[in-house]
Amino acid sequence: MSELRRRAVEGSLYLSLRRVFTIALSIVGVLYVTRIVGPENYGLYASAMGVYLFLTQLVGTGVRTYLIRAPQDAPREIWHQAFWWLLLFSAALTGAALVALRVLGVFWIRTEGFFTVALALCVGLPLHAVSIVAQAALEKELRYKRIALIDTLAQTSSYAVSVPMALLGFGVWALVAAYWAAQLVNVSLAFFSTRYRPRWQWERGMLRDMLGFSFSQAASEWLYYAKNLAPALVLLPIAGKEAVGYLTLAERLLNMLNFAQIAIRNVTTSVFARLQDQPHKLLNTLYVSSQAQILSLGGASLVFVLTAWHVLPPLFGAQWDIRLAILALAILTAEQLLTATFSAQAQALYVIRQSHVVTRAALVFAFNLYWSTALCASLAPEGYEVLGYGVAYFLAHLPNNVFLHQGIKRYIGQPYYGVNLLWAVAMGVSLLAPVAYYAPLLALGVFLLPASRRALRELLREIRALRPPPQAGI
């Protein structure tokens, strides 16, 4: 095995183990910190964090990719240039964002404590921005073991701070302190590991090249992740902090359940790159990748929903109507199942350098999400606005999916869906079983159809084909 392949395999293992440990810590956080602080404090923090996360996307997504893809013999100056650009741009963006949030807080959001919490989070943006350089250096050197260790220590430190503070009654500030603990550990260990020391560098040609690449790569992601602003700008003013708290808890549970789907996406991106000049094979890989994502996410989510409906209420106590969060999770997961096919198509369009299609689709999605959230949350019965958001999120993705389908059809060929959409709908419907006397589970009967059984056998063969051939003995 080559050195590069060995390190890549080791990196996959370390990152997978880190993911498992992260999920375990997240369960601790959900069961303890979230339970203690309550839905209002959690919703207030989540609203402000949504703004902060969007700002992090604006700051450095494309720059990180630019640094990782830079040739091995690229001059060290590009790293210094990236550092100073990220520092100055993030400082300016932080100032502009805080002014905008202050105005919105007074005239639109009007929620007590929102601006103060947002201020406490957003002033950390420059620190996050400069850490991108050190983290990109670790990824470029394939130091996945160190990356996994840093992430694990950062998350551990966040819970070491938040759990006792939550127990002592600090409320939302326990969550803010947890963010800062993780941020400081992450940044300090990243710079210590790389031993990177910035030097002054500012050269217009170098900066123009870096930003040209970065903006073209990141534009669609910026538009898509504008969804992170919707809870603060739309749901919070309409429905209040509790609704955002339930939504964020549902999204957090979904992120825990889709770990296999994320792993499949990471692997298939490199596969798509290898097949970009073979349209027929690329279309078949899109089909198989979507199948695997639907089955992994659908299976994990169905088991969780059926179990959590009975197990979580006593664990969360009377402060949380946890079944409302589980229903929101079911709606969000149903959307993810239907969109799994089209997210694979977006990956393929990136690989063949047709990112403009994904950018237009993301623009349509962001526009539809805002107006449909306002409409559905306003029409939902009092206390159930979070379910209105889930419906809005589902509806906003439908035109986005149509755009991606047309892009694949134009630039690669007619996409093959087979039983994928049927499976996605059936598994999405089955997630509503606890509120309909478990009758929706009958939808799973689609897996008994001849076409489904044939597709399952073919998928199993594809998975077996990925196994490495046995090594000859001595």
Jot down its keywords:
81% helix, mainly alpha, 474 residues, 2 domains, 0% strand, disordered N terminus
Q: Topology, please?
A:
Blueprint: H1 3-69, H2 77-109, H3 114-122, H4 125-140, H5 144-167, H6 172-194, H7 204-224, H8 230-239, H9 241-257, H10 259-274, H11 279-316, H12 322-351, H13 355-379, H14 385-411, H15 420-430, H16 450-465
Seen as an oligomer or otherwise, the chain set is single chain
**What count of domains describes the coordinates?**
2
Low-confidence stretches: 1-15, 466-474
Helicity level, as a percent range?
A: over 70%
Give the helices and strands as they follow along the chain: HHHHHHHHHHHHHHHH
Distance between the termini: 17 Å
Number of H- or I-type helical stretches: 16
Shape descriptor reads globular
Nearest-integer average pLDDT: 83
Q: Which structural class best describes the helix and strand composition? A: mainly alpha
Hey, roughly how much beta strand do the residues contain?
under 5%
| Gyration radius over CA | 23 Å
Number of strands: 0
For the biggest sheet, the summary is: none
